[in-house]
Amino acid sequence: MSETTKIESDAWMRFWFAPQSDSRLTLARTALCVVAAAYFVSSMTDLSYWFVDGRPAAAGNLAMFVRASGLDAETRWMLSPLYLIDALIGCKAWVYYTYLLAGVALSGVVIFGKGGRVAQWILWGVLVGWANRIVMLSGLVETLLSLGLFATAIGPPTSIVGLLSVGASRSGDPGSDPPQQPADWTVGFATRLLAVQFTLIAVLTTATMLASNIWWNGIGAYALAAPVQDRYLQITGGWFEREFVYEACTHVLVCLLPLGVALAWWRERYYLGKIFIGVWCLMVAFLGSHWLYAAAMFSMALAIEPLALKPLSHRAEIRSDNV
Asked: Structural domain of residue 239, as residue ranges?
């Protein structure tokens, strides 16, 4: 193996498995759990309309829809304990409420670092089980939470209380030594995986936007606006209908996300990149009322932390000197 190949291999291993402080993983996991809890609570609002026997998404009606659409092969592996319960006792509202409340409780358990890795994986399983049950009602939020909770479950359990107490002690004694780096390689791997997941999602989101004409002709922000009953901003007849305003918002939305991601991976502009990503998420939340989606995106972005790597030529010189 050549010297350059060895150095590149070392850089790859360091990127994925270098020991890191668990503070970033704790912050991202806590944020994702808060979003997951809010998602479970929001799912309770229309349970009786969708999932009770005889309603549109009841097990019987859903099975007929799948067969009529020829989607048997695609849905065969969408597993959920709720399907089994529906088959045994029928679609009961109290079962679904209990399931979602269990998801909320598990989110709190994981936030405070209780239950070990078992609780983390059960929470991920509950989320995936719910997403598989609602099938045609699921969207991007379920995908983001599933990916995010899977990545964070790889790392060891941590508590947000412990993170805050460490931060408070260090602020009270600036001269104190920083906490020791954990030996568990899963901390670094879980953090990197979450950051890479977000980066790929951001790239795909940007590519999807650029593939649509509405983001080129300036009306993308206008098209993103939520239905009238769900809007937080008055659009029709208001200041947003001015051509300059919605065209400017469109171009900002197109540019801000990829620029923010690029800067977030650049150590010297790390905080500026996070600010750009946060602004993009806020714009999407306000314009489209996609609050859970925006919160999940920003929660995943919290895991980004650039790795300080020396230039390859410099590290090659060091290796040759050691040899």
From this structure: 184-306
